């Protein structure tokens, strides 16, 4: 089996998982870390450096102390954890752990947090580093067959996610799951006309707007829509679809920039093709000369000559561009 990337959406890292909060929360996450020693929590205090930037943007736990043993920042974090979703939620989880690790007060922070947060979310926070590590290990060993269908790959991915995250998989990876569902649905968009295709694509975008699919710009939407046009479509027909999408999502300047990039890619592809064609011709010619003109050379002499000829060819080829 060959290791393949599941989709062109961004490689999934533990930092990209998300949490979606609904009326019914999943059952408690399996405890993947050793239990901390019991401690007196009556005077638990959380102190962090407000100048420490542990993630993009703010620290989840700026320095604030309250005489009753709880901090305003910790209460704010608890609210974020149970109300936010997606990358903002993961930023908070990451920020919590980076902040407490930098201050060497994670145990005290968890003790204080346990008093003001529901058990399920406390277990998620406590076990997040270990589960994140296990998830990345699982992703590193996830294999797909070359001929395996997209539907099968997605099902396999979801199964592996549930083995690590349990019932939290659906909410933690809801963005990723939504991106895969979007990919599947996009393959079934109608192709009767450019207008119909564009309208169906916009409906699909609208239905997925609550999820972060990485389609936050018009250029990204254009490129995503074009990516699903089938290869069997003839060039004239495909151009009509692309024109419709360009008029919808791109400015004239953006259209020209994309065309310039496409021309550059085409030029590079042609150069690579020509290089291999000419190199193959040279190798065939040298193979024939080895039997005639260079038949008297020893193997060592022939290898030296061969490498010299190939090196000269490469210099001449690339100097011509």
Automatic annotation (TrEMBL):
Organism annotation: Vibrio chaetopteri
Keywords: Signal
Leader peptide range in chain numbering: 1-19
UniProt protein name: Chromosome partitioning protein ParA
Keyword Signal: yes
Source species, domain of life: Bacteria
Lineage: Bacteria, Pseudomonadati, Pseudomonadota, Gammaproteobacteria, Vibrionales
